[in-house]
Amino acid sequence: MAIKITGKKLTNELVRDLYTKGNLLSVSNIFFFKWESDVFNISKSDITSEFEVKVSRSDFFADFNKREKHKALNDAHEKGIVNEEMPQFFYYAAPEGLITVEDLPDYAGLIERTPYGSFKKIKSAPKLHDVKFKVESWREIAMKFYYKSL
After folding, report:
1. Which residue in 5, 15, 59, 75 has its CB near the most CB atoms, within 10 A?
2. Residue 1 located in a structural domain
3. 145 found inside a domain
4. Strands 25-31 and 89-95
5. Are 53 and 7 within 8 A, CB to CB?
6. What are the C-alpha distances in Å from 82 to residues 14, 75, 76, 86, 124?
7. Can you give the residue range of the structural domain that contains 79?
8. Other C-beta atoms lying within 10 Å of the C-beta of residue 41
């Protein structure tokens, strides 16, 4: 049975968990790709991942109404049609037991928050493309942080 937790709390805990595991940058609610990411992560080896945080099944299923986003992710996985403005890996993050592996599209992985507050990978996300994060993109991120803080 899924534990009750707010999306904001789960998002903040996930950002902290990713950062303490040695990632270079983990931020919440940033509009970096052509859509807003609940959590955007860059590893020390410049690999990008997006985590879509869900705390209810209805919110999970409503996410598929973002047709342009899911078409782009599916096209990258199924057809090799790659847009550099997408993560290399896409995950859903949810409380334990909320989402099943069978619920997931083929292009998505699943991270669960346990009742004890730790995170475990249930399904690894497939790599959608090989384009690593570019140094030039740091300026774009800096500007987004600047405008977000105003």
Report:
1. 15
2. no
3. yes
4. unpaired
5. yes
6. 27, 7, 5, 8, 19
7. 7-149
8. 23
CATH number at residue 116: 3.40.1350
pLDDT in tens, 32-72: 777 889 999 989 888 899 999 999 999 999 999 999 999 99
Q: How many domains does the chain have?
A: 1
4 CB-near residues (< 8 Å, 6+ apart): 55, 95
Q: Is residue 107 part of a domain?
A: yes
Q: What's the pTM?
A: 0.88
Give the integer Cα–Cα distance in Å for 111 and 37.
15
> How long is the chain?
150
Is the CB of residue 107 less than 8 Å from the CB of residue 125?
Answer: yes
